[in-house]
Design brief:
Structural class: alpha+beta
Order of helices and strands: HHHHHEEEEEEEEHEEHHHH
Bound molecules: acetoacetyl-coenzyme A
Strand order of the largest sheet: 1-4-5-8
CATH architecture of the largest domain: Up-down Bundle
Radius of gyration: 21 Å
CATH superfamily of the largest domain: Butyryl-CoA Dehydrogenase, subunit A, domain 3
Number of domains: 3
Distance between the termini: 27 Å
Number of strands: 10
Shape: globular
Number of helices: 10
Length: 379
């Protein structure tokens, strides 16, 4: 069934594409080369209302349906995948978790500043011994005279070097595995929180990915997000929506590479004609286009299910499982269309090829998505 966006959703696409082409794309190569996060884009993203698309108006946001946000994320990622993941973690994983599980006081404290881009969010789940097996996390939060004291080590934290609000998962009881984990809101600068040097990565080099050490980090009891012991479920629910977001990021990267390759194929002359006249190139372009259409249908379907209040975890996992490898395939083929020049930084396709690969890994690897899908089919 073809998926049709409403006029309003199409308007979101047009306006965000215009904005991203003008303001985000021109920075992408520099951010990548300098391994620098897109801090200068944050006020512009806030002014466009993009950082507040998951936040209701009563908290200063510009809330839209989730599908509109996903379309915006696709367009931002088409221009710059690093900016895409910054927005995704902030607006999807972190803002929605605060909105759904936070107290009124917590919502008032964080969401207006998050919509305005004054506070960017980060999500601290992964640890050295807890990647795919998130329930194996070992950080602890111990209750001490009206406070929690957090100890532990988190790694691969997106937005780590500049975020102001961190959702941190830590154990509050001795129960094994996924039980006994709680979620906390920790402010940047809380004594004992040490943010390490950003990782040097293959792609999304404009995204800051840091380790964070929690050494006797003392936070008030009111910093608990949701109920004590419910942290794993809060993380999983956040990741359900987040996975549609990463699928949209992958889709945007692939669309960007396809658009570049299509134009290049029509301009580049070899054997006395544009290479677009060669069947080998035509087949690549055709295959890329089918991949994009299939991926877009899965991503929009997952977002639409969420908007309609239907179960969507399985659809989000399917969208991410398809779109991650699809972005790898499409950027690979796009580079092939460019030939030798595509392997240099003369064109963005080389960056897009590197950026695509992570979408098969973070917010749950391809293998974890298969596990989520299979469990939903076999229960
Ligand atoms: N919603 C609500 N509850 C859920 C849930 C969901 N989507 N998924 C699981 N749960 C509940 C289960 O019902 C179960 O509840 P009970 O204890 O009451 O029975 C509990 O959580 C434990 O679930 P499982 O038994 O399924 O747990 P598991 O240990 O087998 O692990 C997993 C499940 C899917 C493998 C999970 O560990 C997982 O998703 N791993 C991947 C981790 C991941 O995605 N990390 C991403 C890091 S963040 C990131 O990447 C952001 C970024 O920088 C871009």
């Amino acid at each position: 069934m073809p998926f049709h966006l409403t006029d309003e959703q199409e308007l979101v696409r047009t306006s965000v594409r215009e904005f991203a082409d003008a303001e985000i794309a021109p920075l992408a190569a520099t951010l990548d080369r300098e391994h620098r996060p897109p801090l200068e884009s944050i006020p512009k993203l806030a002014d466009m209302g993009i950082l507040g698309m998951t936040i209701p108006e009563q908290y200063g946001g510009s809330v839209s349906d989730y599908l509109s946000f996903i379309v915006a994320l696709e367009e931002i990622s088409r221009a710059c995948a690093s900016t895409g993941v910054m927005v995704e973690v902030h607006a999807s994983l972190v803002s929605t978790s605060i909105l759904h599980f936070g107290t009124e006081e917590q919502r008032q404290k964080y969401l207006p500043d998050m919509a305005a881009g004054k506070k960017i969010g980060a999500f601290c789940l992964t640890e050295p011994g807890a990647g795919s097996d998130a329930g194996a996390l070992a950080s602890t939060a111990t209750k001490e005279d009206g406070h929690y004291v957090i100890n532990g080590q988190k790694i691969f934290i997106t937005n780590g070097s500049f975020a102001e609000v961190f959702i941190v998962m830590a154990r509050t009881s001795d129960q094994p595995g996924t039980r006994g984990i709680s979620a906390f809101l920790v402010d940047r600068g809380t004594p004992g929180m040490q943010i390490g040097e950003p990782e040097v990565k293959m792609g999304i080099r404009g995204s800051s990915t840091t380790p964070i050490l929690f050494d006797q980090v003392r936070i008030p009891e009111s910093a608990l997000l949701g109920e004590e012991g419910h942290g794993f479920k809060i993380a999983m629910k956040g990741l359900d929506g987040g996975r549609t977001g990463i699928a949209a990021q992958a889709l945007g990267i692939a669309q960007g590479a396809f658009d570049q390759a299509r134009v290049y194929a029509m301009e580049r002359v070899q054997f006395g004609q544009p290479i677009a006249k060669l069947q080998a190139i035509q087949w690549m372009i055709a295959d890329m286009s089918v991949d994009l259409e299939a991926g877009r249908a899965l991503v929009y379907q997952a977002a639409d299910l969420e908007d309609r209040g239907q179960p969507f975890a399985d659809a989000a996992a399917k969208a991410k499982l398809f779109c991650g490898p699809m972005a790898t395939r499409v950027t690979h083929a796009a580079m092939q269309v460019f030939g030798g020049i595509g392997y240099t930084d003369a064109y963005p396709v080389e960056r897009m090829y590197r950026d695509a690969r992570i979408t098969e890994i973070y917010e749950g690897t391809n293998e974890i998505q298969r596990l989520v899908i299979a469990r939903s089919l076999l229960r």
